[in-house]
Structures are given as structure tokens and as C-alpha cells.
Amino acid sequence: MAQFSYSRMSHLLRVSGQTLLVSRTGTEVQPGPACCVQLARRQISSSQRSVDSKALQERQRQQMAKGLPKQKPVAGVKQVIVVASGKGGVGKSTTAVNLALGLLANDPLKSVGLLDADVYGPSIPKLMNLKGNPELSDNNLMIPLVNYGVPCMSMGFLVDDVAPIAWRGLMVMSAIERLLRQVDWGSLDYLVVDMPPGTGDVHLSISQNIPVAGAVIVSTPQDIALLDARRGAEMFKKVNVPVLGLVQNMSVFQCPNCAHRTHIFGSDGARQLAAALGVRFLGDVPLHLNIREMSDRGTPVVVSSPDSPEVSTAAFCSFTSDVTLRSLTSES
Length: 332
Known about the structure:
Blueprint: H1 2-29, H2 32-65, E1 77-84, H3 92-106, E2 112-116, H4 124-127, E3 145-147, E4 150-154, H5 169-181, E5 188-194, H6 201-209, E6 214-219, H7 223-238, E7 243-249, E8 253-254, E9 261-262, H8 269-277, E10 281-285, H9 289-297, H10 301-304, H11 309-331
Parallel strand pairs: 1-5, 1-6, 2-4, 2-5, 6-7, 7-10
Antiparallel strand pairs: 3-4, 8-9
Helix pairs in contact: 3-11, 5-6, 7-8
């Protein structure tokens, strides 16, 4: 079959070449009137292509005029804050958890929810010490699992702990839509969304389909992490999502024995990036053993050690984000 196809293709190419040669030769020897007729035909063909091109451009313009899908708020949610990072492994999920708990600690009258939008690598079940499958309400909506007063939803509640989620983009988009809109969130002042790393389909889908009050970008001071953090911030700007500011995670390590401070990943990189982008610098979070241990145990440091020095930064980040959101709300 392959040989037949190749032979047929060769034959077609030879026939086309001969036809083209005859046409060119005929053009050279034909009398004037015939040349004029052939030229007229070429002009008509060229004109037809121009008309077709204009029609195509008009159809494309009409399609673009329809614009992006209209943003539809999540039922019961007043403000959505997304926590993102261009690169994985910079402590984004830990920051998102402590941000949600910090917002709740700053104002206990506020209600705060937490959504794990990292479908491939959900971390919220471990960080919030939650297990089990969500129950269904009378309206056939999933009821979030709750700990520390924060209702949470994650793909980790719907699959086994070690089960790989090998899905293509459309399935991931469908899952995100369900986690957002087929959940009984109740009445929330803030929904903190833990975004996956990068700037992919999930980021665009969430920012284009629901109104997002602002994004918090998390990065270490390391140059390679700051490059991706900048890409993330620029992406949110392009989709008209305000960047509330940058959090510099793992900013410094203090030896528990001699109290010597070491900037393992560099110093002030995120602060300088925030200045370059013209956004707020929300604060430093140190590389601290207590933060790591409490996170692995499912007892976030904002809850387990609210008076420790390393928590004051997390509370500051939450407070600053809250103030920023208030100013955005008053301006709109």
C-alpha cells in the first residue's frame, strides 16, 4: 500500500509538471488575443481569491467580535482570590492555606473557602488534614469538607491518594467547572483558589469564566523562580486580573542552634520584581522547620503557632490582601 501510494503520488507530480510545462509553452507561442484571454482569466482568478480572502477576514472579525465567554460568578461567593506561581515547589499551596486561615483569623466574622484547582497534584487534603468523599446536598451539589472553619474542595477528595490523574485538557476543564459550580459553597466572603503551577488552561479558564478579584503571586528569591513568577504576573495582567502582590517564600533560613541567618535562595528578588511590575510586595515568609512540619501534619502554622515569628508574615500577607480587596471593591 505504501509503494502504491508513493507511485501514485509520483505519477500525479509528473502529470502536474507536464501540464504546467505545456501551459507555459502555450502561453509563449499563442497569439495575442489568446494571451489576453488567459491574462483575463488569471485576473478573474486573482480577483476571486481577493474576494474569498476578504470574506474569510470578515468571518474571522465576526467571530472575534463575539468575544470571550461572559464571566459568571460562583454561586454564594463574593470575592475570588487566586494564589499562583509560575514554578512548582515554591510553597504556593502552603501559602494559599495560610492565606485563607489568615483572612479568617483577621476577621472571624468573614467566611472563607478554599478550592484546590491543581487537578494533577492536589495538596489541600494533606495540608488541611482532610479525607473522605464529599456528600451530596438535596440539590445534588457536593458539600465541601470542613476543617479549621474553612470549607474545602479538591480533586483529592474524589480519587485515591496514590491514583494518578492522567487526563487531557478538556477533562481537566470539565473537572474545574464541576469543582467551582457543582459545589454547595454556601455564603462566602472569600474563596481562595490554589492554582496549579504554570500559565496554562486552568489559569485561563478560571480567569475568563469567573470574576477574579485579584491574584497573589508566590515565589522564592531565586532567579529561576522569579522568571516564571513574572510570566505568571504578566499573564494575569493580560486577562485583566489585578495582581494583589508578591509573596517571597523561603526568603531566609535561621539556624535553630546559632541563630545565623542564611539567604539560601538569594535575597530581595521578589521585592525587586514587585517594584519592577509596579505591584505590592506582601512580605517575606522564612524557610522554617516549623512551617514544614506543621504543614506535613495537616495543622497549618497559622493555626498551630499563631504567635510565632514566622506566622506574623503570613498574617501580614492576609491583611494586606484584605485591604487591597477592600480598596478594589470601593473603587468598582
